[in-house]
Specification:
single chain; alpha/beta; seven-stranded parallel beta sheet; two-stranded antiparallel sheet; 11 strands; binds NADP nicotinamide-adenine-dinucleotide phosphate
């Protein structure tokens, strides 16, 4: 299957360029695994065979970075992103960088923040499910929907730093943080990536993006397509999409890639067609006119 447009020959994630993650280098267009098991969190199962096919095709299309978590699974727990990744891709290609995140623990009434004492078991759970001896990148994910301003992450990050020293983790990242959290963590151990809620219709996190850019830290927006809920059908977005014979989703991804050399797109999908469409976005070069149009879709672009 190849997405039916003239960009078929350009379908490779490498077209988006690369970004460093510590001593690793990955394509700036990766893959988010949250939509493989269910379309969201804790919903009905999606077909695991399709999920494995999406993962294999992503790698065929040059994806060398997959973002996952042990808590990405269907409501009944029968389909799990980490299991699909291992089944589809292990033994892993040598250049594949799998990132996971730890922090939340899930009880009967939903997610709560885990404590420092929970983190080793959460890291070991990811190692086991993915069939790895060392995790390439582990994000400490804190708070609920908004960064928990004023809350210290030091105790939790020190545990992950110790697990890194022990050799269970190669690199550390942070998710759902502000610039104070970033500075606090960097005083403990190197941070190679930040993953925050950010997309073309939600751009209020430029301070964190700027701090990442200044320090050579990758910035991986979560919900890069608005999580499938945001209205990407803004007329200015539609106009730019028409100019490129592209979809609004593709323009939303191209905009993230144009925003900064450190942005790392991790669109999530359980669909082969959407996968190809998203990878094709890495070949779209937005013009100054496009960027000016997109500036006016929300807060100033840059
Ligand atoms: N750190 C965190 O707290 C956090 C939170 C959320 C997500 N994440 C990570 O970020 C990744 C990306 O976020 P996300 O997957 O939640 O949201 P997203 O990438 O913004 O959007 C995914 C949604 O858009 C749909 N979609 C994907 N490609 C499309 C296309 N080309 N055209 C139309 N619809 C399309 C998907 O449905 P189909 O599957 O049907 O294509 C799905 O419903 C996740 O996979 C996960 O790895 C992290």
């Amino acid at each position: 299957m190849i997405f039916p447009n003239e960009r078929a020959s350009e379908l490779n994630a490498s077209r988006a360029g690369t970004v460093p993650l510590g001593d690793l280098t990955i394509n700036r267009l990766g893959f988010g695994a949250m939509r493989l098991s269910t379309n969201g969190m804790r919903g009905p199962s999606r077909d695991p065979e399709v999920g494995r096919a999406v993962l294999r095709h992503a790698v065929e299309l040059g994806v060398n970075h997959i973002d996952t978590a042990a808590f990405y699974h269907s409501q009944d727990g029968s389909v799990r992103a980490n299991t699909l990744i291992r089944e589809a891709l292990s033994p892993y290609p040598p250049d594949l960088v799998i990132a996971t995140k730890v922090g939340p623990v899930f009880g009967q009434s939903g997610p709560v923040q885990g404590t420092a004492a929970d983190l080793r078991a959460l890291v070991e759970d990811n190692l086991k499910a993915l069939g790895l001896e060392r995790l390439d990148l582990v994000y400490l994910r804190i708070g609920m929907m908004e960064p928990p301003h004023g809350e210290s992450l030091a105790e939790r990050f020190e545990v992950l730093a110790a697990l890194r020293e022990e050799g269970l983790i190669r690199h550390l990242g942070l998710s759902n943080v502000d610039t104070t959290h970033l500075a606090e963590a960097r005083a403990i151990a190197p941070v190679v990536a930040v993953q925050n809620h950010f997309h073309i219709a939600k751009r209020d996190d430029v301070a964190v993006l700027d701090a990442c850019a200044e320090n050579g830290i990758a910035f991986a927006p979560f919900f890069p397509l608005g999580g499938g809920w945001s209205d990407l059908n803004d007329p200015r977005l539609v106009r730019v999409a028409a100019r490129h014979d592209a979809s609004v989703s593709q323009i939303a991804l191209a905009w993230l890639l144009a925003l900064s050399p450190v942005t790392l797109a991790i669109p999530g999908t359980g669909s082969l067609v959407h996968l190809e469409e998203n990878i094709a976005a890495g070949s779209i070069t937005l013009t100054p006119e496009d960027l000016a149009d997109l500036d006016s879709t929300g807060a100033a672009l840059r």
